Amino acid sequence: MLRVKGLSVVVDGVEVLHDVGLELNRGELVAVMGPNGSGKTTLARAIMGDPRVKVRGRIGFKGKELKGPPEERSRAGIFLCFQNPPGIEGINTGYFLETLGALDGVEELAKKLGVKKLLSKDLNVGFSGGEKKKMEMLQLFLKDPELVILDEIDSGLDIDSLHIVGELIKSLKSSGKAVLVITHYTRVFKEVKPDRVYVLVGGKIVGSGGPELLSKLDGYGFKEWK
Amino acid sequence: MMELPFLEGREKRFWFRSRKRSEFSVEGPLTPKKVKEISRFKGEPGWMTRFRLKGFEFFRGISLPDFGPDLSGIDFENMIYYSKPADKARSWDEVPRDIRRTFEKLGMSEAEMRLLSGVELQYDSEIVFERARKELEKLGVIYMSMDDAVKEHPGIVRRYLGKLVRPDNNKFSALNTAVWSGGTFIYVPPGVRVPFPLHTYFRINLEGFGQFERTLIVVGEGSEVTYVEGCTAPLYSRATLHASVVEAVALPDSRLKYVTLQNWSKNVYNLVTMKALAQRGAFVQGISGNFGSKVTMRYPSIYLAGERARGESMSVTISSKGQEMDLGARIVHSAPETSSRTVSKTISLDGGVSTFRGLLRILRGSGFSRAGISCDSLLSGDSRANSVPVIDVKEKTAELSHEAKVGEIDMDKLFYLMSRGVSESKAMGMLIFGFVRDFVEELPLEYALELQKLIEMDMGGGV
Question: From CA B50, how far away is CA B178, in angstroms rounded?
């Protein structure tokens, strides 16, 4: 479903990713693991089409090259859960969710996630870290995409929330979505093991393999690849 | 489109009939003889003819402003100064397609669209108008076109007209004095609180969007009124110069809220001279939204001339490609314990230029006055925002605060919204709407909703 080949990405004149390649199929869970500053978020931005990053190489999605602006990629079925979604002053959360084209089910879903009271506030403004994550999940459910990119979804979560995120990933995978989890901790994979793991260090894929890589990372961290 | 607050349900009806045409027009170059012809055609009393002629003399003698945008594109020699029927689009087909499309997106009926685009039709919304008129009559409020007021209420008109905005204030106030037609006259007697906002479109024979409008508002002692003119929908005009004059007098302890929204088509020079006087304990609030036009120059003045008078000026300005918006409030404190607040929000997109040219004067004798100026700009692309505030404080006991911020469209926010499938232009609109929200909250609800739609669909220029 997602084929990244020879991808180099320049941000503000600096090449942050070099010749990155990865593959992700329907119903698969793939992890991109790397320390801070390795270019993980840049990878997510490049796939989502952030106009500020300059891309060389190829990002293929469902057999077509991804080239358009973010809204086109969103419509094509890609969803990026932001690590730190920005606050949008002046835009009511409930109103915004409705403009995403989801007229029904918003309230119910919000209730389920325990964020109903946020619907009357400005989008992501004054939300706690956990509330922001839940608002991202809420939008993820509303958009019902085919490819989900979770950028540091586990950062700043307590154990209970980690469990919820684990369950979320499991259900996304079992419903046939392609799931790309970008993180520097292995703890989010307690509930469900990735099909493949890529190790990203210094903007390069320096290793890849099956879930067994996780225990190696748990033991030694990223030192071995640095 | 616009629901009236005192009407239940949707019992509005519209009638349209084409108006008989009495062809009369005055073309440049302007001469005293032509000015007299206008006055004669309108059947005006002699004092008004003399007023016009005085205006013409000043118009001839005064040069163009020596600051601000380039006005050399105005062709005074070949302009149509007066025409009856008003020089608006003659048929629906003449209205540019993008403007028609905007109307459609705003969800207006064709009837409303035709009205707003100035297609020559008479608009009678009789039920609405009758109810409003009866209520106003009961209260003794006079609300009519300026043209009628000159004949029906010459006493009040003569007492105030041309006193705040003197004919020689600037070249365009002089020109307006000479050739004005249309505009609004409001007189609220003492001790009357007008229970609903007076909208321009209440008036039968709507001439509110004229080329040289003249508006005069007098609010009696202890009275209160809100006046709303214009609309957020684009106004197509064949005439390229619009020079209006507004004078407003708030007598002691009265309140005037003046809301004006303008979205002229992008061929128009919109040059407004507006002055308001607040006497002891009076409160004048001026709120303006400036969206269209090629060039806008507008520096509404509020004179706080009596003890404890208050003035507030809020404006939102959007300039995009090919537009130059030059605006700023002028506030003069000349009495003790007066207070004022100026809030300006300018948005420059896609090469547009906005300039804030504010003036604040706290004169000797206005001890313990307070004034605040806040001036925010939002920029994108290679647009420009200038700020030229002049602050002159002659009183040691005066309190003054001044803040100015310039920011760009936050790309993180834009990317975030776009990643959720929102188009770039709509995402820009959302961010702009957030930026101007304080302003929008001051507007009557129906305008706020329209403005939101307008910004979301129309203001998303290139980044």
Answer: 9
- Given a cut of 70, whether residue B6 has pLDDT beyond it is no
B326 assigned to some structural domain:
no
The arrangement of secondary structure in A2-85+140-225, i.e. its CATH architecture, is: 3-Layer(aba) Sandwich (3.40)
Contacts with B415 from chain A: Cβ below 8 Å: 45, 48, 50-52, 70
Q: Domain locations in chain A?
A: 2-85+140-225
* Tally of helices (H runs) and strands (E runs) in chain A: 7, 10
Which pair of tokens denotes residue B135? 């209520």
What pLDDT shows up at residue B31? 96
> Is B355 a domain residue?
no
Closest Cβ–Cβ partner in B424, B434, B463 for A89: B434
Domain membership of residue B317 (yes or no) is: no
Whole-model pTM? 0.77
Question: What is the per-residue burial (b if ≥16 Cβ within 10 Å, else e) of B54-65?
Answer: bbbbbbeebeee
pLDDT of residue B92: 55
In a domain, B7, yes or no: no
- How confident is the model over B8-24, as a mean pLDDT? 37
pLDDT digits (tens, 9 = 90+) for A105-120: 788 888 888 889 999 9
Show the domain range for B112. 36-298
At residue B23, the pLDDT reads 67
